[in-house]
């Protein structure tokens, strides 16, 4: 039993391989893409293997609903025929040849999509065929527009983007910086195409008016993504304001003007002026949004009311006018003068401070030369202390060194010790003196000096005689 089945298996395998080889002799494209309404070409050729091979007929067959239907037939004697569309010239062979069965379909329909077989009847090989799949694409027609809605607190569609009659369905999205969302709906058309509708939903506020959003459409039939910008249109009532009153309307003024400014969607174009007392004064003239006062008088000392209207609503605002007897002085000039005075005063004080600083610097040069070292009698920068003279406390008359009692000598010694202490620690403002050698020299000179009244009236109490007989100041000795 097993040995009987083996020949059948080998025969089946051989026939399958032969069928593949024969099918490879027919050349087609396994998949062809066409666009709705355009022309498509289905290539099909057969390779003749030898002179004994003859082609007796070429047939294109389409599978429709599980049934095979002849589309085009080419017979060497009977010629060409198109059974599926007998009276139509949409379908035809590209050339009049039994080895080149390329098929051309004009004005492609969605119903043309399907699987097509190209078959050659040959002798002695029999029928040889190959199949191709025809895919029909429909390029969608897309558009986007804003939907006029009134401002409210309820979310609703404010824009719509439509991609119609596409195959396959297009991908439609929104690009927006607003806090909205989208809703998508698909409609299957009778011709096999699909229409995609994407609505952009938002809470319509006046701030969203004139904001731009973009609809993006992607499809295999499009070379690139299509974009459709949309400017939102949110309807809202006018917002009104009155400009022009500067608070300085005085009697006999003739250039006073009020302007009624309003914005809204749609733009307000209807304006009316009234007063809180009724009709307008005779001294005013209305020109649309503007109210001109020919000459200010007490009749315009009232409240003016402007009303702006669009198709959404009417809104009014008012302006109270105060008429003065005399014009108000410009506060800007007073403020400018005050500011100028303050700045000038500050500059003057600065200049005066600089002058005083330089005067004090010249009078006290020691202040800029560093600190004073009482031991070296020099300042911090190495310069010697300027010489100073004290003619009030240190210039005291010298007493003779002879003819004194010991008690007087002790008093004199105490006096000189106190004097030395004062020199070591001078009062504030006096330069210190620490040169004790000069004091001892002064003490040695004491006995030599002889004091006598000067006939000319000079006081020699503050003078000392050197060894050479010259008279010197006591203070000079210290210096």
UniProtKB/TrEMBL annotation:
Molecular function via GO: ATP binding
Gene Ontology biological-process annotations: cell adhesion
One cellular-component annotation, GO: adherens junction
Localization: Cell junction, Adherens junction; Cell membrane
Chief location of this protein within or outside the cell: other
Organism of this sequence: Pantherophis guttatus (Corn snake)
Record-given protein name: Nectin-2 isoform X2
Disordered: annotated span: 367-479
Entry-linked InterPro entries: CD80_C2-set (IPR013162), Ig-like_dom (IPR007110), Ig-like_dom_sf (IPR036179), Ig-like_fold (IPR013783), Ig_sub (IPR003599), Ig_sub2 (IPR003598), Ig_V-set (IPR013106), Nectin/PVR (IPR052659)
A Pfam family assignment: Ig_2
Signal sequence, start to end: 1-23
Ig-like domain ranges (all copies): 37-135, 140-219, 223-322
Keyword entries, A-Z: ATP-binding, Cell adhesion, Cell junction, Cell membrane, Disulfide bond, Glycoprotein, Membrane, Nucleotide-binding, Phosphoprotein, Repeat, Signal, Transmembrane, Transmembrane helix
